[in-house]
Write a structure and sequence with these properties.
The structure is a single chain. The protein has two domains: about 140 residues, Fructose-1,6-Bisphosphatase, Chain A, domain 1 (2-Layer Sandwich); about 120 residues, D-Maltodextrin-Binding Protein, domain 2 (3-Layer(aba) Sandwich), CATH 3.40.190.80. It is built from eight helices and 14 strands. The strands form three sheets. It has a seven-stranded mixed β-sheet with strand order 3-4-5-6-7-8-9, with helices on both faces. Strands 11-10-12-14-13 form a five-stranded mixed β-sheet, sandwiched between helices. A two-stranded antiparallel sheet has the order 1-2. A hairpin with a 2-residue loop joins strand 5 and strand 6. Helix 1 packs antiparallel against helix 2 and helix 5 runs parallel beside helix 6. It is globular, with a radius of gyration of 27 Å.
Length: about 325
């Protein structure tokens, strides 16, 4: 099954790479504000589905663009597909995007492929058999202190995303770690976490096709994946933390209070911080308004003084004229 998934991922990657040679000609449409789909997403998804269903016609499909439209509706075997994770990067020519394919059996991910067509990097995992990058076994990073770690994330970009809450989360993590990166493709972020290129990852508002393949890569590489409170059943919850066990625990400690599943006390403390931030922002805005209002008056007063000085000089006359 893994070999078929690899074949499908490479077929999609070939389509993406050809289109990347002339990305300006690719037709783009918006699913919603800042959420794009291209004809390449759709062509790559079609190629993946055709490859998978040719080999396994009785399997189900859950794909980003076509949902459950294709494949069997009641199968225990479901392929979870993101044909082009990082579409916004792709349409801008920013070479960070990938193909993500996972196979869930009775709801548990058992096969995973993440393929980066720009670098020809292939990440694969089979449950219980380890994770690999280009046929080389990979493991999560070994750092044990968050202060030494490089953490990747994704920023909110859709209407309705809780930007202020996220900025507070980001601020906490930034002050506790060595650096934060936002590459823009969650599946590739998870693959990089599995390979030890970064030490951990967190992001909100993710869908199953964003995280299914990457999550198996991380766990097979010795890491942990879960929601912000550390629960392993995260796939449909829109919250994801991934890291080695020690860093995972530290990220949960930092981010747990921001989870939709946090306790009432934690949620109240987060609301209080947000209210305080809003109050500070209003105070800053008011101060800025006062300064802007005062500035013209000060400027006018200065101009009047200069004008008066000039008039006095003129009335006194120039001594050379006498």
């Amino acid at each position: 099954m893994l070999n078929v998934a690899v074949k499908a991922a490479r077929a999609a990657g070939a389509i993406i790479n050809r289109a990347a040679l002339d990305v300006e000609s690719v037709r783009v449409s918006a699913k919603q504000t800042n959420d794009f789909v291209t004809e390449i997403d759709q062509a790559a998804e079609a190629a993946i589905i055709e490859t998978l269903l040719t080999a396994y016609p009785g399997h189900g499909i859950l794909a980003e663009e076509s949902g459950s439209e294709h494949g069997a509706k009641d199968s225990e075997f479901v392929w979870i597909i993101d044909p082009l994770d990082g579409t916004t990067n792709f349409i801008h020519g920013f070479p960070v995007y990938c193909v993500s394919i996972a196979l869930a059996v009775r709801g548990k991910v058992e096969q995973a492929v993440v393929y980066d067509p720009t670098r020809n990097d292939l990440f694969c995992a089979t449950k219980g058999r380890g994770a690999y990058m280009n046929d080389r076994r990979i493991r999560v990073a070994k750092r044990s202190q968050l202060k030494d770690c490089l953490i990747s994330t994704g920023f909110p970009y859709r209407p309705g995303d809780k930007l202020k809450t996220y900025l507070n989360m980001l601020g906490e993590v930034m002050t506790q770690c060595a650096g934060v990166r936002r590459p823009g493709a969650a599946a590739l972020d998870l693959a990089y976490t599995a390979a030890g290129f970064n030490d951990g990852f967190f992001e909100s508002n993710l869908k199953p096709w964003d995280v299914a393949a990457g999550s198996l890569l991380v766990t097979e590489a010795g890491g942990l994946v879960g929601n912000y409170t550390g629960e392993a059943d995260f796939m449909n919850q829109g919250e994801c933390i991934a890291a080695n066990p020690r860093i995972y625990a530290q990220l949960v400690t930092t981010l747990g209070k921001y989870s939709k599943f946090a306790g009432a006390g934690d949620k109240a403390s987060v609301r209080q911080v947000l209210l305080e931030d809003e109050a500070l922002a209003r105070t800053a805005d008011d101060s800025s308004s006062d300064e802007v209002t005062a500035a013209p008056k000060t400027l006018l007063k200065g101009r009047k003084s200069k004008a008066a000085g000039a008039a006095n000089t003129a009335s006194a006359g120039d001594p050379s004229e006498f």
